[in-house]
Amino acid sequence: MFWKKKQFQxxxxxxxxxxxxxxxxxxxxxxxxxTGLALQSGDRLIExxxxxxxxxxxxxxxxxxxxINPNRKIPEQIKQLTGITxxxxxxxxxxxxxxxxxxxxxxxSHAVSLVGHYVSFDNLVxxxxxxxxxxxxxxxxxxDTLELLSFLYPAKxxxxxxxxxxxxxxxxxxxxxxxxxxxxxxxxxxxxxxxLKEKGLGTWGDLLKAGEINKRI
Length: 217
Description:
3-stranded mixed beta sheet, 8 strands, Nucleotidyltransferase, domain 5, alpha/beta
């Protein structure tokens, strides 16, 4: 990871043969919480989490988590939804430092890809927060569980993360917390990858084709 001419660059281990088995790869699942969805109007990042998946096993002991000081009050409805209070973020790192620490964790894990549920929003959060510090951000290789669901089940109705976890019988953790949703997404992702493999799609190239999102930010 480096910053050259204010370009925020992330180095993933994604330059690998497309026939590499999915099971041999490492992924980092992420989730963010913000003061709201109106990022263009001043909503800010308040929590960031990640968990490592290795050999299609969620490494629950290898997580990343931090609160972030948004330099503004957290709306009451967000406090009620997430349980995050102004006290939690007082003294927490600023967004740029938190994001840098997160991507250092990603690189240290030798991950090939980020994974998220509606991860384009998380990437937009990174982009907006880093812009405030004068950085340009280009998302690294990213996989979205929604894209995988669409590939596997094109007619399936779009649902909430918890509803998907119930449908597929995967674990559910604390909702609307970055670490909880991150863990829920991680187990859902592993289940979806197993279902890809049942269809004979077991390589890095297959996974990219099934789930790599378009850069929509």
